[in-house]
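User: Quick sanity check before I run a bigger batch. Here is a single chain. Can you write out its predicted 3D structure?
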Amino acid sequence: MEKRRLGKTSLDVSVIGFGGIPIQRVDSELSHGLLQEAYNRGINFIDTARGYNESENLIGEALEKIGRDKFILATKSMKRDYDGMVEELNISLKNLKTDYIDLFQFHNIRTFEELDFIMSDNGAFKALKEAKEKGIIREIGITSHSPELLDKAVDMGEFATIQCPYNPVERQAEELFKKAKDMNIGVIVMKPLAGGAITKGELSLRFIVDNPNISVVIPGMDTLEQVKSNSEVGINIRKLTGEEESILSEEANSLGTEFCRRCGYCLPCPQNIDIPTQFLMEGYYTRYNLKEWAQSRYDAMEYRAIHCIECGLCESKCPYNLPIRKMMKNVVEKLG
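Assistant: Done. Predicted structure follows.
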């Protein structure tokens, strides 16, 4: 398995990592088997989050059996304030059954206001910086779906890593990744299959790994076959042929006008609907087979697709000219 240095950290990570979202739908025995197989095949980086339901617990149980020292462990939290982050960090340590976390990340920072707040006197960054000084966490990272926001975060010089979607459809972060590499900041790629929309998984992973600015890509895995096939990409790295590039390009183009890139330009919605998250939950529901999880997240939102009044303001701001009103109706059809 090819290893790459994670930015300015001392961590050498497998170019294929283990994405921890789907593991929440398997039992303890299989989760142990998945991580054991991952280790056997050279995967040493695990990414999970407080928001992934049982993911942290299942990973913690598996690490007790396999060995905590066998993996570089990353998790993240949606908390933005100091006290909330202290609480979340302690929960993660307990769930993961460890006394340290290699990389703790801010989960899905969506606005420049949020970024400014976490860096304020009562913000969550202060909590993580204190934890790092105590050796409880080793590095601090940030995740977002917005390359523009991460570009500002990179300039702050406070983050060891950034995490952003990247795949043959969503390529808008390529210049950001180059900048991060030049500044010695680790680049973690999420959504390598565009939320399951891309069916040519091996080709998509090979496309991503071929980018020298990428440190690690984290496809979600919940079967042994997925672990084997995904890890093979990092074990036997091969450039895409011209024919394979054409196949990927055709699939990317086929997703066409009804594929949300989650750039956020459609916001704010006059009805306070978080439009990209509606499509994200619909994707988890229909493509990731996480129906209960997606439904519960969707139901917990105060403003949902059902509240759309079809004003069309979002469509006027979408740089991809998506038929958002039509797509919102599809979310209602699936999730209510």
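DSSP finds 14 helices and ten strands in the chain.

User: Great, the batch can go ahead then.
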